[in-house]
Amino acid sequence: MSAHQIYDGSTLERDLVLEGDVAIVGTGAGGAITAEILAGAGLRVLLVEEGAYRKPEDFPLREVPSLARLYREGGAIPSRDGALSVVQGRTVGGSTTVNWTSSFRTPPPALHHWREHHGLQGLSPDDLAPWFEAIEERLHISPWEEHNRNNELLARGAQALGWNYGAIKRNVHECAGHGFCGLGCPVGAKQSMDRTAIPDALTNGGVLVTRVRAERLELDTNRVVGIEGLALDGLGVRTTGKRVQLRAPSVVVAGGAINSPALLMRSGVPDPYRRLGKRTFLQTHNYSLSFMPEAIDPFYGAPQSIYTDQFTWRDGVAGRAGFNMEVVGAQPVVSMNFWRGMGSEMTTFARRLRHLHILVSQIRDGFHPDSQGGEVKLRSDGSAVLDYPINDYIWDGVRSSYLAMAECQFAAGAESVHPACSDARTYRSWPEARAAIAALPLRTPNVFLNSTHPLGGCAMGGDPHTSVVAADGRHHQVENLLVIDGSVFPTSLGVNPCLSIYALAARNASLLAERIAADATKTSQTR
Amino acid sequence: MSDVTAAPPASSPSRSRHSQPQTPGAAPARVALSRHGEEILRAVTPVVLGSLLPADRAARVAALDEGMTTIDDYLANFSLPLQKQVQLVFGLLASLPARVLLLGTWKRWRSAEPARIEAFLRSAQVSRIAVLRRFFALLHSLTIIAWFDQRAAWDQLGYPGPPIERPPWPEASL
Ligand SMILES: Cc1cc2nc3c(=O)[nH]c(=O)nc-3n(C[C@H](O)[C@H](O)[C@H](O)COP(=O)(O)OP(=O)(O)OC[C@H]3O[C@@H](n4cnc5c(N)ncnc54)[C@H](O)[C@@H]3O)c2cc1C
Ligand code: SF4
User: Fold this and answer.
1) Which of B126, B164, B173 sits opposite A61 (nearest CB)?
2) Closest residue in chain B to residue A448, using alpha carbons only
3) Which of A97, A167, A170, A273 could bridge to A101 as Cys pair (CB 3.0-4.6 Å)?
4) To the nearest whole angstrom, how far is the Cα of B59 from the nearest Cα of chain A?
5) pLDDT at B2
6) Which ligand is closest in space to the CA of residue A303?
7) Interatomic CA distance for residues A113 and A119, integer angstroms
8) Regarding the domain with residue range A1-139+191-278+456-527, which homologous superfamily does it belong to in the CATH classification?
């Protein structure tokens, strides 16, 4: 490996100006795959990332310090009214460094919906198949069969109820099954971007600047002429006063949902139809807690390896809110935080943690007229905040998924089930749970709602009146600007999104590389 | 690591703090957890955790000390706007009108009877006023953060700990 060129913004002693062929904001799923492909095509790639570059041997496997350092806002970015929180990584590799490795191709119903309702061509399941295959090979995405007890119980419940369920593929290589994926894989088995695409891009001459926040894009009429970055201190909280400027003929924004639209908004990027930040989706997660008779030690083993999509598309794409269902495999802080008991109840609950089985449902949004998602707004200091109203459409999804999760847990042998909701009680049987959940008052923040899958805000679409970028990631108004990350999806997906982001990034980065090569040939011919 | 005047480096705060000689009894320097926040959380934590907190006085104090350091480190990594929001909430809760209204006492949080604190928490949790429900969730969640990452807590839970022993964050992460 050639020496990697990396600047840590927190130690910069003077301002920095870098020039290259393509400048990329963000090193997560979208930014890293883009960087790898462009650097591999011989282009000089510049990457700027707000978080720090951590190595596997750095990860201390302790929950709180890891949530604090590897995630934005400690893993709980509050929405504007505090009704729910969004979970995003903030480190080299972005959310991929802390994600749970569950890998799904984009479901065909979503892709068809995009063609019919968002004018997206060239993104059919067949069109995307080669890109999925390429990424699956690159990131060792393959079926995982060593299910821990936690996941087996989901399979058992789904099987007993006759639901459709299956094994999840994971992007891991020589995974030891520690189950600490959310705190950074300590042995580098997870094929996250900090272990794969980023080092590869650096080996091919890419330059990485960490602990620097891209504050704004400099615009000159319809072109981006540079990225203005502010260096951050060791915690990544305060600016140090040092500035970083990236200059390149092509600029890719890959800061993820919420932050990509926010950067464009801060920069005053043309938005004639006021689409920026709109239609931000969450596939909102809600949770069901149950105690199993036997100890299941949910702390260890691949966190997610079984899913059920029994309810995802059940009422048709544009019908009632559907949801997919998986388990939560986590350590004590994350697990205990789903339950808001006190005093002696707390003691009883905590002492049975080894028996705790947690299911999560992800309620897909964006396909129904009553599901227009949230909107990113800027605070007076330019930072981003998501306004996401929870309406009846989402509440319907919450109630039906609470019911489904409880039914599944009882079918798997649970002694008791408790929806992760301050207004719920502990139910001892499925009939009791069914009656109680049907009558449960649903209100925030008592219903524990969050999302590790924020998507949208820079929606792609065929019509500039209703979208921000085209299917190839190119901005509708600014000619040398692309967005390549989770913010371009025009709806949520109904599955964990990472593989969809990787594959679309691979496609759109390859198209960009071809265009740049074609332009270079043209220029040299006209000379 | 430059420019960390107000903040410790992005490394283990516990390590850097514990290695500094401290006057016994002196309050440790906090980065993000305000004085009001610490006072309130020290009062709330035992109520939420019940008999999970060690009964032995010294062990209890040590657990609370470690918990507050953990919370401070956690909050210190928040963006400044969010740090400020959290401090505002604590400032509000610590104010005299809030104490009279919510706890039903003129006393400070540190001397309020646990029964009053428990009554406040239980009513806030199911209050018709959304902002009180949110305050409850914040206090409860920070209590979880304060306790369940401590080794002493893991024994109660039957959690054997991480599969690999690792030191806290190294001084330099590049
Ligand atoms: C805990 C957790 C578990 C998950 N589990 C799964 C899973 O099992 N399967 C799955 O498919 N998905 C999972 N996801 C979701 C998945 O990881 C994300 O959808 C995906 O990584 C998003 O890719 P992205 O490129 O849009 O953004 P990210 O990967 O989030 O990367 C964006 C990066 O840009 C940086 N950035 C943002 N703004 C700026 C700026 N202005 N200047 C500089 N840098 C900036 C951020 O710091 C971040 O590092 C999980 C996510 C989390 C948080
Ligand atoms: S289960 Fe453990 S070894 Fe496997 S990817 Fe996750 S953290 Fe790494």
Assistant:
1) B164
2) B137
3) A170
4) 18
5) 34
6) 2
7) 9
8) FAD/NAD(P)-binding domain (3.50.50.60)
The verdict on B16 touching A (C-beta cutoff 8 Å) is no
Segment (H or E) for B92: helix B80-94
Closest partner CB to A235 (pick from B76, B121, B149): B76
What is the tens place of the pLDDT at every residue in A282-338? 999 999 999 999 999 999 999 999 999 999 999 999 999 999 999 999 999 999 999
Strand partners, A46: A23, A207
In chain A, CATH 3.50.50.60 sits at: 1-139+191-278+456-527
ipTM of the complex: 0.96
Query: Where along chain A do the CATH 3.30.410 domains lie?
Result: 144-185+284-363+391-448
Cβ(A190) – ligand 2 distance below 6 Å: yes
Task: For a ligand 1 pocket test, name from A95, A135, A455 the mutation site with the most ligand atoms within 8 angstroms of its C-beta.
Answer: A95
Calculate the alpha carbon distances from B135 to A153, B128, B130, B142 in Å. Answer: 35, 13, 9, 11
Torsion of CA A190, A193, A195, A198, to 10 degrees: 170
CATH number for region A144-185+284-363+391-448 = 3.30.410
- On chain A, the residues whose CB falls within 8 A of the CB of B134 are 82, 445
Instruction: List pLDDT tens digits, range A496-508.
Output: 999 999 999 999 9
Q: Is residue A175 within 6 Å of ligand 2 at its C-beta? A: yes
Residue type present at position A364 = R
Q: Which residue of B has its CA nearest to A237?
A: B79
Q: Which of A487, A517, A470 is nearest to A37 (CA)?
A: A517
Residue of A nearest to B85 (CA): A78
Amino acid at A141: I
Cβ-defined contact of A233 to B7 (cutoff 8 Å): yes
**Could you state, in chain order, the average pLDDT of each consecutive group of 10 residues for chain B (174 residues)?**
35 40 66 97 97 95 96 96 97 97 96 97 97 97 97 94 86 40
